[in-house]
Fold this protein.
Amino acid sequence: MEYITLATGSSYFRSPDAATDAAIAALQTGKTFYGPAEGTEALRQAVAARYKKEGITMLPEQVLITPGSKQALFNLFTVLLREGDEVVIPTPAWFGFDDLLKYSKGKGVALQTHLSEGYAITPDALRRTLNEHSRILILTNPGNPTGRVYRKAELEALLEVVNEFPDLYVISDEIYDFVTYGQPVASIFSCQRAPKERTFVVNGFSKSFAMSGWRLGYLAGPPELVKQCTDFQSATLAGVSVFLQDAALATLEQRDEALPPMLHVLQEHRELMRQELNTIPQVRYYLPDGAYYFFPNFNSYIGRTTPEGETISTSVDLFRYLREQYELEIAPGDNFGAPGHARMSFAVEKPVLQEALRRLHEALEKLR
């Protein structure tokens, strides 16, 4: 039996031809020198222009090109956080936030959301979580692992609460913003209540454009704080390779050609996973509005017994059973702050996805 994983955070698609062609051309013309720490003027202008198309005013000096979106987050944590500061993280959430905070002055505080409520953050719940130590609120839109997309009206209601706390910064992780299955994502920059001096977007090319190995990200926000992040990046990692930035520029300029074929496939795979999960008794899930994961609840299978007589006491036991008996890997919800759930990617080849879901169904059916 061949090993299958639905636990990966990257898609199986090839990077856009525009990116590859631009990178090769840049190398052939000798673009192997040091570039500016803040990123090339052309790419920063293209990022700003991308938001201008959405009616958002942005200048190139508000943009910092980073070696991946994770570095963009770390730059912000380094510049913004002070000893004892709290970072509010709506949960379930990407485990990388907590991993990064281990190397910062802040500590994470979970704001729990629930499947039964569509993983919504309510203004009241946010207000109860915030206090004088709250320094950063992280919003992920679309959500990872839930696929939840926040509408503009929901964001405005949350930002009304944010404005009650004048020392609170907002970081909107919008790395999956081009991967949606209904209405497009409203960037937090489009919100009237977003405090301009305290609002940031983190984004990049890894998810929407299947460019995870290129390590291309960016942050955007108030110029004076972006400058501080640039200074930190200059002193540590320096800038992103110029030929990689040429690839990113070409990708942005030709995104209308690159995105639709991938989104068409993902839409089909989303429907396939939805249909198959519906055939498994007592598995509940949120139909993702964006990104390329389902995050189903498998708690009904905790406490059951395998054909070999082993009791499934925890979700970790369940996922080990799937891995050892069925060569199927899914990402435990424990890593995202939601034990009993699992993140399952549908950004894999269709035959692989079909076989993975068949194994999942068979494995759960045999538990008693």
User: Anything to note?
Assistant: The mean pLDDT is 96. The first helix runs from residue 17 to 28. The chain has two domains: 4-12+257-365, 17-253. Residues 67 and 284 are 37 Å apart (CA to CA).
